[in-house]
Amino acid sequence: xxxxxxxxxxxxxxxxxxxxxxxxxxxxxxxxxxxxxxxxxxxxxxxxxxxxxxxxxxxxxxxxxxxxxxxxxxxxxxxxxxxxxxxxxxxxxxxxxxxxxxxxxxxxxxxxxxxxxxxxxxxxxxxxxxxxxxxxxxxxxxxxxxxxxxxxxxxxxxxxxxxxxxxxxxxxxxxxxxxxxxxxxxxxxxxxxxxxxxxxxxxxxxxxxxxxxxxxxxx
Length: 219
Hints:
By secondary structure, the protein is an alpha/beta fold. Helix content is 27%, strand content 25%.
């Protein structure tokens, strides 16, 4: 059994969603979006703790959600200006005996316990694992946004998902380097890639969609 910690990033501003309620607390079928991820992690014995990075103004709402759901081993961390800053803050609070860290976006409420369990198992052999799904549509590249420059080979293209899982010490090193160089990536795997460490792609789940705009709800 591997000792793993999970970090849920829930400190975004949800500008693209619109409305007054921050995205992690929008209700899906009568339940806050964030609760779905907490429920999944609670079903995986290898996950020994869950840290939720939240905005300071959402701290009370998140604490109430945790109490109502009776979620154990969950701690809150105040997030930063960018997603990467929020994860960095949470990494400082991770228990030091953990071997693997899973980082998940609260905006992906439909991951399953089976996916998490498979990812944790993969962490016993690989230092960095990224769940992906294959791109099905034809993808075009346009440098100016007006004309097509290239049709990309979709057989080589994949959509990244979360949770992404990493060796704890490796992830710390990746974050320290990114901080020193002032680099911000769009996901955690990109920071590890910059170290020259192979990131293994792993079959994700079609249903593990990211809720970004209102139209995504109900998909």
